[in-house]
Amino acid sequence: MLDTTLAKHSGNPAGLYQEALSGPGGAWSCDLKTEIVTWTDGVYDLFGIQRGLTLHRSMTLDVYQSQSRSEMDRQRAAAIRSGKGFVLDCQLRSGGRSRWMRLRVGVGFDQGRAIRVFGSKQDVTAEKKMWDGLVTVAGHDPLSGLTNRRAFEEATRELSRHADGQHGFALAVLSIDDFETLRARHGHDGALDCLRCLGERLARQFPDAILVSRIGGAEFALLLRIGAAGMLEAMLGSAHRLLARPIPHGSGAIELGLSVGAALLKPSHRDDPKRLFAEADSALYVARAAGSNCVRVFDGMIARPVPAARAPN
């Protein structure tokens, strides 16, 4: 069955993209003592609830699909305990319509005690349909379960059409260092364990990525939403330490080196989507030349080193 929302914009992907970003949404807050929620008008519209009504949190939960509600509750409880916010895409159903909402959550404290959660809720239904449509057409890599190179290349071409400089996106290419040596030392099964485990780690570490793909051999790629180069550096630098942990194998573990190169999407990529990949790939080359197991971000003619993430206290 043809998705009429996607078909309506097939000749104007920029229109679909703008619809995804400018759909209903707004700011929200929830008092943890009373569970009374405060919404801006856009959130009422997103949930299909009359504007201005005084709402208790329990009155809003039925709008969430059960799986999304369970995951939201789990992450909300963890955020309140730890003080660390999160971003989650949730599926809603109201007025006979199914929608996707991007939920951003922060935690407010008073004298060391969590007193409220707050953030934003944004309708990303059109965006979901656009990227899910690409993935459905293109298929998956049978080893890792991630989308394959074809999906990645098609999504990169589509993304390049939105290279207007107003909205941040980036491409990152990751490669297991000295993979042939690793395979010789740990055998075929050990090499497969590394590929599968890294694919799982990438999917967990970047749940909001547009695509997480295995593009061939020991190389993976990410299409990311990002605000600025500094945010990209911080994100990849922090993730690298977690991604490059030893891989469980048999009764032991396999030490893993991981090199990462990345580039920001710019207006110059609109008519040359392959250039974006070439820039990320050149940053990967610099990462390898710098001694491997590190991250570099393309910046003009060079790739900047990314500061190592600090170990947790």
What does this protein structure show overall?
Helix 2 crosses helix 5, helix 5 (125-138) packs across helix 6 and helix 6 (149-160) packs across helix 9 (273-289). The protein has 313 residues and is an alpha+beta fold. The protein has nine helices and 14 strands. Strands 3-2-1-6-5-4 form a six-stranded antiparallel sheet, sandwiched between helices. Strands 8-9-7-12-13-14 form a six-stranded mixed sheet, sandwiched between helices. A two-stranded antiparallel sheet has the order 10-11. The longest helix is centred in the middle third of the chain and has 27 residues, at 179-205. It is globular and about 65 Å long. The protein folds into two domains: 4-125, PAS domain (Beta-Lactamase); 139-305, Alpha-Beta Plaits (2-Layer Sandwich), CATH 3.30.70.270. It has helices at residues 4-8, 13-22, 41-47, 66-82, 125-138, 149-160, 179-205, 229-243, 273-289; strands at 25-31, 36-39, 55-56, 86-94, 97-110, 113-123, 169-176, 211-216, 219-225, 247-249, 252-254, 258-264, 295-299, 302-305. The model is unreliable at 1-22 and 134-138 (pLDDT under 50).
Per-chain topology:
Blueprint: H1 4-8, H2 13-22, E1 25-31, E2 36-39, H3 41-47, E3 55-56, H4 66-82, E4 86-94, E5 97-110, E6 113-123, H5 125-138, H6 149-160, E7 169-176, H7 179-205, E8 211-216, E9 219-225, H8 229-243, E10 247-249, E11 252-254, E12 258-264, H9 273-289, E13 295-299, E14 302-305
Helix pairs in contact: 2-5, 5-6, 6-9
